[in-house]
Amino acid sequence: MITVRPPESIFTVDGRIEHGTFHGRWHFSFDMYRDPEHTHFGPLRVFNDDTLSPGAVWPLHPHREIEVVTYCASGEFRHEDEHGKGGILRKGWVQHTTVGTGLFHSEINNRPDEPMRFIQMWFFPDQPGLSPSVEQKALKREERTDRLLPLVSNHHPEALRIHADAEVLCAFLTSGHEVVHLLRDGHGVYLYVLEGGPVAVNGQALPALGAAKLTDEPQIRIAARNDAELLLVIVGLGRASR
Question: What is the spatial distance between Cα 152 and Cα 159, in angstroms, rounded to a whole number?
Fold first, then answer.
């Protein structure tokens, strides 16, 4: 089954933060956004597409017992935490954080002269009480061109590891190209068109900033009608999947 979420159906919010503003597109219930139809998808708890104005900072704030994956969609993202750990991400780079027993962290637009856009995903961990850690990976666009590139996965040796039954993949598909990914039993996909498109997902059209949730499908087939940047989250559906 495929459930398409058109761009206009996804919650949007604007607000002020330290040294600037943010614009958010939040896919699941988060902060003041409450939607009983979109609370999580398997272990995927949060999928936020946020843009920070030049120099803007989300100040240090605490979290516990989550696995965080951050993907930089444009500009320069900078992460800082209470232990002085973090790093800079550029477009197409990825970071994984195990928050575990607790961590204060901050998301920062590292550039004073241009906006920064990042996708942040939170996952329920597969065990409590993990020690906090941060790791990241730099990637080139050609590595994800016309293929699905695993960013975070426990099944691919080149990907970052995660304490959850989850994988995050990315792709830059050029017009006319198609990719196919076989799905393991009991797993679903959350697909997001970051920019470009439209694409066809198992035959259904999906425009820029649209999302699709796939369950009980043996595979996902994505065909690019125009150049498109994509993120895919593959999750086990042992938890309630609505």
Answer: 5
